[in-house]
Design a protein that fits this description.
LANC-like; metal ion binding; mainly alpha; Lanthionine synthetase; two-stranded antiparallel sheet; Glycosyltransferase; disordered C terminus; metal-binding
């Protein structure tokens, strides 16, 4: 089990590493051709027909071959992610070939997991990701419901078997994060339970309640180190020479006293997003016992109830508000736009986040940086009915235009740390807020992403590592499947719902009209649902 988790975290650690600041990297071809920064790339506005043509081309290439991804059982870069992308391609293009191919990838997932069973429950690296993909197919074909029920019960039992620590210094980022931790597990369980209805087992309800209480506990601030502080003993690790987990050398060197992670993928924005789901922030849970040490059993001051289930929604909203305020307080001072670092050092005396230490803004991406934080704040605002997180989120997203190119570090068209992620973040933000300038920024990111299409690339859209080296991946987070989903979501309101995977919360109905007080003025153009069935 330890060796398996070490292998899983070797892959998760590469995701951490890709998002951290780098120096002296080579430039990608697009950067070399455009004066050294991707931000200087000048492209015209892409049309809907062009977006659909590119999406069709990517889907067709994934039909032909998914390369090494076809043999992997994880959502991040394996067959489940490709199955998910093809399922939405089938819906947008009304083409059963894509749905059939997606089903084949689900079967390959089952075969791969039979050969090498998924020992970890993670959303992007384990069982929860398979549950997510099967849930999407079960929504369209009831034949998948028995399989979904079995897999969801397995996921629930996996999470129930894991000890959940809540004391500061005993918590690792991968215990609670989106990629491999509790935030991702919770979102997958809730999504599956919604589709399963009465088929969901008691274990599913017990697991979801336990995870909600655990994540709420992590939002508590008792005046000492924050609960999600990661001590060196819990750093992400890779297999050492003896095969046992060894902390990443870069973390040990740069953060000898521990670290606070601020990214959506591995930090508290993911907790915020998971707790902002309407099925927990607005509805009571079951009567399962809360995680030991939580405040779930205390009398709720507003509801007056000692029942954990009855008190849970109020406590969730309290936790969401508290964590949103914490993120606001951890912004970098001295900038004329809101921004956050990748990681914060603990203060040498208090071990609380040291906001007075020198900080460098994180790259502009979903995984780390202002866009991902803003996405979580939008979800929090909806969950609590508070306007302040939305105002901060909008200011953050608009501030990207004033962020220097060297700080943005966007050198890829892909999802995790590239333009596909920005297209999706800004698409949801524009639809939710009605702010015209967010819509225009979404359009510009979409055009820039499309400009990376390369007919010579096996999947049309390459990925680039932090040094500008071109990589070939069919997968979801760093490959063609993620770009395909971003393309489809940009031109179809139905397909836009895929972004629940990225933000952990379902997409809200579109804002009725642009905000009159927003930059760009009232009455600015807003993207409507194309209803595109075919090109």
């Amino acid at each position: 089990m330890v060796r398996c988790l070490a292998r899983v975290w070797a892959r998760a650690s590469r995701m951490y590493d890709r998002a951290l600041p780098r120096g002296g990297r080579a430039l990608s071809r697009g950067e070399r051709e455009n004066g050294g920064t991707m931000e200087s790339r000048s492209v015209g506005k892409v049309t809907d027909d062009e977006v659909l043509r590119l999406a069709r081309e990517v889907a067709d290439r994934l039909l032909e071959s998914a390369g090494d991804a076809a043999g992997k059982a994880d959502l991040a870069d394996g067959a489940p992610g490709i199955a998910l992308a093809l399922r939405y391609a089938a819906e947008v293009f009304d083409d059963s070939r894509y749905f059939t191919a997606g089903r084949i990838h689900l079967r390959r997932t089952a075969e791969a997991s039979a050969t090498a069973p998924l020992q970890a429950p993670g959303l992007y690296l384990g069982t929860a990701g398979v549950v997510w993909a099967v849930t999407e197919y079960a929504r369209m074909e009831p034949r998948y419901l028995p399989t979904l029920a079995t897999m969801t019960d397995r996921l629930a039992r996996q999470t129930l078997a894991i000890t959940l620590h809540t004391a500061a210094g005993s918590v690792a980022s991968h215990d609670y994060d989106v990629i491999g931790g509790a935030a991702g597990w919770l979102a997958a369980l809730l999504k599956a339970a919604d589709v399963l209805g009465g088929r969901a087992t008691d274990a599913v309800g017990q697991a979801t309640d336990r995870l909600v209480d655990y994540l709420v506990e992590l939002t508590r601030d008792d005046g000492g180190p924050l609960r999600w502080f990661c001590a060196p003993s819990h750093f992400p690790s890779i297999p050492g020479p003896d095969g046992e987990p060894t902390p990443l050398p870069g973390y040990v060197k740069n953060f000898p006293d521990g670290v606070y992670n601020l990214g959506f993928a591995h930090g508290p924005p993911g907790i915020l997003a998971a707790l902002s789901r309407p099925d927990i922030a607005e509805a009571p849970g079951s009567t399962a016992d809360p995680v030991a040490g939580s405040a779930a059993g205390t009398t709720d001051s507003e509801s007056g109830s000692a029942d954990p289930a009855a008190a849970r929604p109020h406590r969730v909203r309290q936790g969401v508000r508290a964590l949103a305020r914490t993120l606001d307080a951890l912004r970098i001072d001295g900038l004329d736009y809101p921004a956050w670092a990748n990681l914060l050092l603990p203060h040498p005396d208090s071990r609380r986040p040291d906001t007075g230490a020198a900080q460098v803004p994180a790259r502009s991406a979903w995984c780390y940086g202002p866009p991902g934080v803003a996405a979580s704040l939008l979800s929090a605002s909806s969950a609590c009915g508070d306007p302040e997180p939305t105002d901060l989120a909008v200011a953050t997203l608009l501030g990207l235009e004033r962020t220097p190119a060297e700080q943005q570090r966007v050198n890829s068209p892909t999802l995790c740390h590239g333009l596909a992620g920005l297209v999706t973040v800004y698409g949801r933000a524009a639809a939710q807020t009605g702010v015209p300038e967010l819509f225009h920024m979404h359009e510009r990111f979409l055009s820039r992403m499309c400009s990376f299409a390369d007919e010579d690339h096996p999947y049309l859209f390459p990925d680039y590592d932090p040094w500008g080296k071109q990589e070939h991946s069919a997968g979801l987070l760093n490959g063609a499947a993620g770009v395909l989903l971003a393309l489809l979501g940009a031109v179809s309101e139905a397909a836009a719902g895929w972004d629940e995977l990225l933000f952990l919360t379902p997409r809200l109905p579109r804002a009725d009209a642009p905000r009159a007080d927003a930059p760009g003025g009232a009455g600015a153009e807003t993207r409507q649902d194309r209803g595109m069935g075919e090109t």
